[in-house]
Amino acid sequence: MKVCSWNVNSVRARINNIKNYIKLSAPDVLMLQEIKTEEKNFPFNEFKELGYNSYVFGQKSYNGVAIIAKKKIIDVDTGFLKDEKSQSRIIVGNLINKSKKILIINIYAPNGNPVETDKYTYKINWYKNFIQKIKKQILINKNIIIGGDFNIIPENIDVYNHMKYENDALFKIEIRKKYRELINLGFVDVFRYFYKDKQDYTFWDYMSGAWQKNNGMRIDHFLASNNILGNIKSININKKPRSREKPSDHTPIELEFN
DNA sequence: ATGGCCGAGATCCTCGGA
Predict the structure, then answer these.
(1) Domains and CATH numbers, chain A
(2) For residue A242, which of A3, A4, A9, A61 has the smallest C-alpha distance?
């Protein structure tokens, strides 16, 4: 089973890149973030033609998440978290894998910059609520995968120049603590679990040649609950899509398990 | 056409991104 996650920065602007990626990588499940469109304008047919069902929580212009999958996703829920700004940031559903039910949680967490504005308090509150919700959920279902754009740089190694980001909403101690809190509920950061010292990024700014200079950061993650950690075979950051024409500023992360 | 990327949507630039 291959589950992938990709912040595509507009599903409509990126449709050819996404279709190309699906053909090459053949994910069973693809979690998308920042689709930047309402459900009525989502390209359902384009994915249907490739053999995928789409489950969409859209929003006009900003945010928006979706799950596209070869198999049926059941109990799809777009009301998992009450969002104080009514933004479309989470879609969840159950995946049946070898008669085991796995809860897939696809998130697009708030950015939080600039830190002196209510954007930052919104991010902190969003994570507070999310952590509370996961705390309850892990009691109900022990098999959980949380994937997506967390907008958190976990450690120094996860950004090209950590000194520059000390007061940034992606790297402030306060926000990194939220990441630790989440993990302490019974999860592992799968990439870091498999690669203790590897410096690898999932995002490179469009500005000032960040990609060419490898000025990146690791802000897209897969957290797996301890109960399913033993089933995970591999995790990979696939940098190819970031190198192509008209790319998203993020690149996909890929999780394989049995 | 829009600041130096980008995208969406509205207006001839702003907001949001990270």
Answers:
(1) 2-257 (3.60.10.10)
(2) A9
